[in-house]
Amino acid sequence: MATKSNKSGAKKSSKKGAAKKSAGKSAAESAAEKLAALRGAPPPRVLEEPKSPMPAQHIEKPGIEAELELKPRYEAPHYKAAGKLQGRAALITGGDSGIGRAVAVLFAREGADIAIVYLQEEQEDAEETRAAVEREGRRALLIPGDVRESSFCQEAVGRTVEEFGRVDILVNNAAFQQHQKAIEDVSDEQFERTFRTNIYGYFYMAKAALAKMKEGACIINTGSVTGLEGSKELLDYSATKGAIHAFTKSLAQSLVERRIRVNCVAPGPVWTPLNPADKEAKEVAEFGSDTPYKRPAQPEEMAPAYVFFASEADSSYITGEVLSLLGGDTTAG
Q1: Looking at residues 53-65, what average pLDDT do you find?
Q2: How does pLDDT run across 124-156, given as a tens digit for each residue?
Q3: 78, 80, 149, 218 - which has most CB atoms within 10 Å?
Q4: Are the C-beta atoms of 98 and 270 separated by less than 8 Å?
């Protein structure tokens, strides 16, 4: 029979062993366990997301998500998959961070393999997205490069097909923006970069993907509230987003007979690296506070709309639509 002191010693030893075991876990393992626990819990009636003011932080372009003090939420722990994209392959531009990362995670949860296009300097973020996709049990292909180049877009599609044997879903999401007070402040270089990234890149990637897409495939573009309402300090960016909306509708009409759907998600303010890399810290703190929800959206709140458009089960009769997600605003479009 164990003595009292022996029992006490056993308890202490057991606690030490548990602590040692816990300390031995990697950050990825701990994160995976936490996510699994959240998924298993019943979702709250109202999901809580970080509210404004956001951290007053400015980061250098192109904007690395790993450098943000408040990490954007992309794991959507209460989202339950239904195999809507089982066996599909998706190519996502700007897939390393922000909305692109959240979309990659939910597409993977729904059964798709994911190719991620990003700039070389965003490698750290891309690696995190790859790890997140692999935690969902799917394959991830990293393709660094610049969508401003038509030849690269063809290469990206080719590598996707080589790796996965197909490309069923294209998400055009890469973006560049730079606030300026007046049109005189928008340099020719900035104007060229904004258009080449935001609309040339979408056109090049769509053209390349369509050469490999079959009936039932789809294209989803990322637009913006600025393309619907305009923005006085984002003249060039807003113009490209309006062009994306028109491109979506026109391409949808062009592809109806091929049974390939084209739709667009037009978000309002979303907490991603894009704005902290563009605005002064004091302005970043107030980002999204002027919406009825008094905060910016989190990427995980945007991603289900992309799943909806990607899923034939959900949106087989929907093409040429621009879906605005504006946090309670009802004036756009």
Answers
A1: 92
A2: 999 999 999 999 999 999 999 999 999 999 999
A3: 218
A4: yes
Indicate if 306 belongs to the active site: no
State the pTM of this model: 0.87
Residue-by-residue DSSP string for 40-82: HSPPPSS-----SSPP-----TT--GGG-SSPPP---TTPPP-
Least Cα distance to 217 among 251, 173, 242, 178 occurs for 251
Classify residue 312 by its DSSP letter: H
Using alpha carbons only, what angle is made at residue 55 by residues 287 and 43, rounded to the nearest 5 degrees? 80
Domain ranges of the chain: 83-325
Unique residue bearing structure tokens 């891309």: 126
The Cα angle at residue 205 between residues 108 and 272, in degrees rounded to 5: 55
Specify whether domain 83-325 bears CATH 3.40.50.720.
Answer: yes
Give the pLDDT mean for 82-93.
98
CA atoms within 13 A on the CB side of 245: 21
* CB-count burial class (<10 Å; 0-12, 13-18, 19+) for 7: exposed
For residues 276 and 283, the answer to whether their CB atoms sit within 8 Å is: no
Exactly one of 204, 237, 293, 306 is catalytic; name it: 237
Phi/psi zone of residue 165: left (φ > 0), alpha (ψ -120 to 50 degrees), beta? left
- Tens digit of each residue's pLDDT (9 = 90 or more) over 20-51: 444 556 656 666 676 666 677 777 777 788 88
Q: What pLDDT digit, counting tens, does each position of 190-238 carry?
A: 999 999 999 999 999 999 999 999 999 999 999 999 999 999 999 999 9
